[in-house]
Amino acid sequence: MIRFDQVVKKFGDNVVLSDLSFEVDPGEFVTLIGPSGSGKTTILRLLMTLERVTSGTIQVGGEYLSHMEKGGKLVPADEKHLRQVRKRIGMVFQQFNLFPNMKVLQNITEAPIRVLGTPRAEAEAKAESLLEMVGLSDKIDAHPSQLSGGQQQRVAIARALAMEPDVLLLDEVTSALDPELVAGVLAVLRQLAETTDITFLCVTHEMQFARDVSDRVVMFDQGHVVEAADPEKLFTEPENARTREFLKAVLDRA
Ligand SMILES: Nc1ncnc2c1ncn2[C@@H]1O[C@H](COP(=O)(O)OP(=O)(O)OP(=O)(O)O)[C@@H](O)[C@H]1O
């Protein structure tokens, strides 16, 4: 579903990703772990087309994201192509980024109506069922400022799902939450991972969540994949010294 092929990403002279290749299968839940600055967020931003590759290619669902085919050749994607492929990808951020002046319902229906052309009644019915799924049916007419951080994040998840993405990117979705609100958000994500065929790419410091929910965990350092394995293996018997060092530091801090 996601394929990075020899991707290089530089910011000036800073080589953030060098020759990065990895794949995520359809329906797989993959978590990226690694030290601060290792390039995890850059990977998500490339997938959201907020950044462009320096070289190499990215494919989503068999279609090029970074490039498009023109006259039998691969050329950098134009804005129209990017918008088209991007519709398949949803993202939930650390900061929930809800529209503050819109009620919860409108936050969820806005993109389906405007971007997908979904009729309003259909978009609202869908939003109601998504709000039920995230346990917030009673907040349909609230404004974001009237919700806790955990509730706002669950609305943000519902909003991403309303676009029916094939791929959902999760970037430190619990980092801005008070500790007592984290479990509710993780429970919603766990349910989604178990009951939908969405492909997840997740960046998190919640190691227990990564261990419970992921099909595969990928350890990054300095823009390279150091090691990738199923969570039981990676967390109990990491092969690479860098992974062992990183996990020890994270678990000592917890
Ligand atoms: N827009 C930008 N301009 C310049 N440098 C950038 C930009 N975005 C990221 N970088 C650099 O790219 C590197 C990787 O950053 P990135 O945010 O992807 O790391 P990360 O692994 O997600 O870290 P963290 O866990 O702290 O979020 C860092 O050295 C960062 O300074």
From TrEMBL:
It comes from the Bacteria. Residues 2-247 form the ABC transporter domain. One of its GO terms (molecular function) is ABC-type amino acid transporter activity. It is found in: Cell membrane. GO terms for cellular component: plasma membrane. Its main location: membrane. Keywords: Amino-acid transport, ATP-binding, Cell membrane, Membrane, Nucleotide-binding, Transport. InterPro entries: AAA+_ATPase, ABC_ATPase_HisP-typ, ABC_transporter-like_ATP-bd, ABC_transporter-like_CS, Ectoine_EhuA, MetN_ABC_transporter-like, P-loop_NTPase. It is a peripheral membrane protein. NCBIfam families: ectoine_ehuA. Belongs to the ABC transporter superfamily. This is Ectoine/hydroxyectoine ABC transporter, ATP-binding protein. It comes from Saccharomonospora azurea NA-128.
